[in-house]
Every structure is written in structure tokens, then in C-alpha cells.
Amino acid sequence: MFMKKRIVLMLVLSLFFTGAGFAGFLETPHLASGLQIRPDNRYFDVLPRIVPADQESTVSFVPLFDHVKFTDNAIYELTYTPMEFEPVKGGPVGGTKTVIIPENGRISITMLFEEEQEHDFILNKTVDGKTTQAGRFRIYSLKPDLYGMRPYKGDFHQHSHRSDGVESPPYVAGICRRAGLDFTALSDHHFRGGSIEARDFYNGLPIDLRLYPGEECHFPGNPVHILSFGAEQGLTELWKNDQAACDREIAEIQAALTDLPAGVNPFHYAACVWETRKIAEFNGMSMFCHPYWVTGNRYNVDERLMDHIFSTGIFDAYEVISGFDWNSLNSLDVNGIQVARYVEECAKGRRMPVCGIGDTHGHERSDQFGRYYTLVLAPSSDLQDLIAGIKGFRSVAVETPKGELARAYGPFRIVKYATYLLREVLPQHDELCFEEGRLMIQYASGDTSAVDRLALLQGQVARFYDKVYSPAK
Ligand SMILES: [Zn+2]
Ligand SMILES: [Zn+2]
User: Which has the closest alpha carbon to 339: 322, 316, 359, 315?
Assistant: First the structure.
């Protein structure tokens, strides 16, 4: 009897502690990206969240709901701490406390935000001698070269039912937006048509997702999987149209190879060079797909060829994070090894543009889709801006394995900023994308009434970013 009572009590307690609404364990809705919206970022507008570095800016904290509104009987005190650099140019030092009287329902502070870094603000309120935290806010100050850029999330390595995936190209496009992507490309095996089908299907519709051409090439005799992103022409088409000419060009490249290290297969390397050159010729970006993919009980690419590919740097970008096939042996090793390789190459002085992608073959059935992507800082989501952003070392590869926090890999400066964005900005971005993606799928099912509702949503991410970034002074 006693035991029974205890079990019931434990059940009640566990429900209480895991249930929504318990103050310490606020639950946020599940986002496909695995990101979580901090409650304070829901309760308050922070105008702006991102400011220019080394300039004076005014930041306002605006309560949006009755339960957080500022009251006359409270004293509000803001504690400021710069996360990296103690000020030397006249900004407030770490731990500075300022009593602020709300005006027009908001609390505002004007100060110099020194250096490129994150800034922490804790807002305490005291009522009848009792002090509690009213909110905690994070601001990021950016140097001018990045300040004019916006973050764009994309996945351009994924498959539809036009190759060995599950869903149709328009369906995949919808689910990409639903998962919080700003740009995407299908990369069906040996087939650029899937990506074109998705792009053309939504052509002229009021959507903000950008759809680009893509294709995953693995030509006969060459084990290396090569992704063509954004190219104006398909490599497979080229190959099919005039195989003899392609063979001849590869043979010419092979014949001209000198000092090939021992053990490097000359044809494999020459075929890689030919493919990457063609992709460049067609104004696309070539990416070395899943370098440490395990297939047939071994890594797909011989390590000597791998060494030579890295030392010659023939690819525009490198897939450092892959989100595929998590249930198979070795799959968990892949990202760790790819990251180690990236770090090793950087240590040798070889900078490499990085990408993260899902390589998803069945989006709806995958509980990993949306957690692996590339984050690019670019002036717009136009194709050539994105490619220039990746090639210009302004991208990071992101992974958010289930139950873990998001991690970004790439250049240190971009990783630091991306870490802020992944915590403070992108969760709400992802939530905004959800409805657009849902309506795209509805439209793909034949329901044209979705178009009117899509038109209402168009531009909402841009409007959100208008609030996040202050106007330049
Ligand atoms: Zn592949
Ligand atoms: Zn693939």
C-alpha cells in the first residue's frame, strides 16, 4: 500500500515537473531545426538585437504582453556585461548597473557598443524590497563588413523521388521551408531535373524560399560524389549528350597530370578536376560530398586521393557536416572525422569553405531533417550572393543532433556570430517559416486557396530582420 502511494506520488510529481508551465522548465514548441525560442525573446521585442560595432546605439526592451509589462510601483535596474572585450573607448564596463525608468511602456538604453561581440543585459525589478529578474537580453555588435549581411539557411544536398528519395520535388521544397530554410536545391543523383521541377512549380508564387538548381554527380568509374549547386547546365545532361567529348576532355586532363603522388588514381582525380571545372564554367558551386561516407565496408574515397584533392583545393566547398543515415554502423563517426579533417587542413594553412547538409532521402519520415544545414552570411539570398558568401568563408556548417544544442563549424569569427544567431534570432526565424512551408505543401497537393494565404505571409522574415537589425547610422 505504502509503495503504491509512493508510485502515485512520483507519477504526479513527474507530470508536474515535465509538464508545460512549470516555471523552471518552460517548454517551447518543437521546431524541425531543433532550435528553441528563449521565452524572453517571445515576451519582449528587443529593438534592435544587432547593432554596429564601435558606435553608439539605442536599444529598447519592449514588453509585448500583460504578464511582462513594466509597472509604476517597480524599480528597474539593468546590469550590463560585454561578453569578450572590456571597454576602452568609453562604453560601460562589465557589471555596470543602471536604474532605468520605463518611458512609453519600454526601457531604453543608449551606449557605445565596443568591438564585435555579444553583450549581456540582465533586467531586474524590485517591488516592495523584493528583487526578481524581469528579463535577460543579448545584443550583438558587428563590424561593418558583416553588418550589412543577413543570415540565410540552406540545404542543397537532398533527394526527391526523381532519384532515390521519397517525396516529389514540390513537396520537398515545401518541407524545406517548413523546416526553416531560406534557400534550397534538390540534388538528385545524376539528375538536375528534380531541382528545376521544384523551382518551376512555385515560379511566380508569393513565397520567400529561394529554389536553385542542383545535382549530385558520381560519374562512371569515379567514386567521388560531387555536388553541383546553382549551375546553369547539368553535368549529367552534358555527359549524356556527348559522352565521347566528355571522355576526351577528361583524358586530356589526365594526360597533362604531372607529379601525381603515388597511389592516386589518375582517372579519378582527372574526372574530379573536369567536373569541378565544368560546374565553374556553368556558374555553379562544386562541393565535395560526404568525404568520409562509409559504403561497402570502407570509406568511399581512397585516402591518397583524398589527400591530393585537399592539397590541390579543386573544390569550391567541402561538406563538413552531413545528416544522413544515422542508424547505420559508422554513420556517427562521419561528422567527427570530417570536422577533424577540416581542422587539420586549416592548420596546414588551407582555408576551406564549409557546408552542412542533410542528404535526406525521405524528408517526412526523417527526424533528422532540418537539423543539418549551411548558414551563409550574404547581402541577399540571390544565388551568386550565396555562392560568394560560401566561397568567401562567410558560411558555417550547422548540426543540432536530437537532444543537443546547435553547433556551428567553420571560421572562428563566423562561428561566434552564428552561435548567437542560433540562440537569439534563428529560432523565431524558423517558426515564421513553418506556416509558409505548410501552405506550400497544401498548394502542392492541389489546393490553390493556399496562394492567398501565402501572399499574406510573404516578406515576414524580412520584416522580422528589420526589427533585429538597426538602421546604420
Ligand atoms: Zn552521395
Ligand atoms: Zn546524396
Answer: 322
